[in-house]
NADPH-dependent glutamate synthase beta subunit-like oxidoreductase (Reinekea marinisedimentorum), 550 residues
Amino acid sequence: MPIQSINAELCIGCGTCVSRCPMDVLRLLTSPAAKNQQSPCSAACPLGVNQREYHNLIELDMLDEAAELLAKYHPMPAITGRICPHPCETPCSRAIVDSAVNINGLEQYLGDYLLEAVTVKAPAESGHEVAVIGSGPAGLAAAYHLAQQGVSVTVYEREDNIGGLLRTSIPSFRLPAEVLDKQIDAYKKMGIRFVTGAKITDASELEAKGFDAVIAATGASKPLKLTVPGAEAKGITTAIEFLYDVKARQPADLTGKKVAVIGGGSVALDAARTGVRIGAESVQVVCLERIEPGHKDSMLALSEEIEDAKAEGVVIHTSRSVHTIEQENGQASALTLVECASVRDADGRFNPVLAEQPLDEAIEADFIILAIGQTTDATLVPAGFQTNERGQILCDPSTKQSASHLFAVGDAVTGPTTVVVAAAAGKRAATSVVRFLKGDAMTEGQSAEPQAFDVSVLTEQACAEISKFPRVERRRLPIEQCKTSFAETLKVFDWDEAASEAERCLTCGSQAEIQYQADCQICNLCAHYCPVDAIEITPERTFPPITAWG
Ligand SMILES: Cc1cc2nc3c(=O)[nH]c(=O)nc-3n(C[C@H](O)[C@H](O)[C@H](O)COP(=O)(O)OP(=O)(O)OC[C@H]3O[C@@H](n4cnc5c(N)ncnc54)[C@H](O)[C@@H]3O)c2cc1C
Ligand code: SF4
Ligand code: SF4
């Protein structure tokens, strides 16, 4: 039997040996141990997804296993794989070698595979009944993780369609309706029930129906209004209204219109790019922020969204605010602008500093879309839940418990955030509700901060051992087609692309261990490819004698 060992001082848990071993001898250690650290990507994902686990399995073409693992942590990967701002990619260790792994692209690939090929089953029901109010990502995630634990769930939604802002606002060129439909079908197959056209005004209605616990996930989609001279003119709408009309009602006729969108976040760019697609003559964005990634006053929209919008013909005026909305016969006709010297103060608080005098520049605009933020709508919060002065539902930040059997999650609690943050809150609430129903301790282990992998072990020398190869990007729809259709702009990876990109993952975090030493054939591949020379094999490689078989 070969004698081999992995030097714990040197091992960086990159997983290279695990993926190179043709005999499947090695594993990554997952039990708690001194060096058992979470990968930086996993620590940065609000859902705590363990990316390196399934990256490795994609590379090995074990897609069913990969998808089942992902489904354990993640209630909607096909959705976030398209629209998550991917905070997990920022600290990715691979960036030290060349560039971050395209975690979002791999998530989309596996999320789509999960919806097509794998049925997530829910265990037998425990006899407990829980109601969720609101079918946005926070409510859907809570329902999914409750169903996963055998709880019977009913989701109440005031609209006729399920999905919250995923359904009513996020444009289909970024999130096609078919993807959301398939995800909802998968939830229904798990046994989750949906009641639409059902606005809940009082939590006691649900108690009377016999529910053991209630989770409110009512969102924060009430648009903020602009207070400048001319704000009452005709031809002004909000991004929430405009996008809802385009997606689900009668879209505005923008033929020959000069559109101005006010705001510098994803919502503003979604409205602007939608305006291009429905035939506006021109689309201009006016925002306080700058296009300078890393700067405190940088635009909140992602760099790729800004680049896409510009490529589609949107003109962005940065460091500008609206001074006056000019009108002709009561109809908006132009915007007079004023310079914005600074957006956030030294503590990062929103505190714009505007010049006293307007600029001698105006932009023509007869259709104006406001995308300057949203807030909670207190009239949607059911009686029984306590709110603060901003209408946000009060709850324990760790357990999401609002009062005994009442829990609250998502934008309704925090104000506008992102899908992954809302979904993570839903997942957290599901854990708390199950503990509440069983009478277990609510807080235990719920607020522990993950211990992230220390990237300092990736020294220059260790990185030099890892072959560089470029990040695989998703293919884009040709720009002319983008401008005139709502077809999805980013194409999902095919298997070759996914496998190549998954191979770039260093699977950093826990260390490797030898699990099936008896199977080792001393081929030396693990030691050969290990970037930090952590594997020792004894005896040294000796070639087997030539036999009659050659
Ligand atoms: C245009 C736009 C683009 C965005 N783009 C992105 C993006 O690219 N990536 C990203 O991560 N995030 C994005 N977001 C943010 C993201 O959509 C939200 O953070 C997320 O949807 C919040 O989820 P939620 O479940 O808390 O609320 P919501 O999605 O708002 O869902 C709340 C649901 O509750 C229902 N409801 C409310 N009150 C009641 C009641 N009393 N009874 C029954 N039902 C009720 C509502 O009808 C709604 O369906 C975007 C938002 C907008 C507006
Ligand atoms: S949900 Fe977002 S943060 Fe989490 S792994 Fe996916 S892309 Fe990264
Ligand atoms: S290299 Fe892989 S495991 Fe490490 S941070 Fe990047 S995606 Fe995560």
In short: The chain has a mean pLDDT of 89. The longest helix spans residues 419-438. Residues 45, 47, 49, 51, 80, 84, 86-88, 103-104, 107, 420 surround iron/sulfur cluster (ligand 2) (CB under 6 Å).
